[in-house]
Specification:
The chain is mostly helical. The protein is built from 5 helices and no strands. It is globular, with a radius of gyration of 16 Å.
Length: 103
């Protein structure tokens, strides 16, 4: 899939309130010959998006500008909870207290 098609699909999926799982479904429809697992596709699509964001930053865009131009999909609640638990455990082991993330 060309980068321009990928970017349009990513932005459209995000604008429709979709998730990374919806992006995987859209990708599968656009590239039916793909045999990659959903997990592999999520990783590949997210990595591709990260590289595009990095290029925008290299062109002089700020993080806030990039977030508006090419937004990230929110983390799944379970993933976010797992990450918070992992961070809390690391800080606990280091003798520090985790501060709750403001939302």
């Amino acid at each position: 899939m060309e980068d321009t098609t990928f970017v349009e699909m990513w932005i459209d999926t995000h604008a429709e309130g979709g998730t990374i799982n919806d992006m995987v479904k859209n990708y599968r429809q656009a590239v039916p010959e793909s045999t990659a697992s959903d997990a592999s596709l999520k990783t590949a699509l997210s990595t591709r998006a990260t590289k595009i964001r990095a290029e925008l930053i290299a062109l002089g865009k700020t993080e806030d500008e990039v977030a508006k131009l090419f937004p990230k999909f929110p983390r799944a609640t379970k993933t976010k909870q797992n990450l918070q638990s992992a961070v809390a455990r690391i800080l606990e082991m280091a003798g520090e207290k985790a501060e709750p993330e403001g939302e």
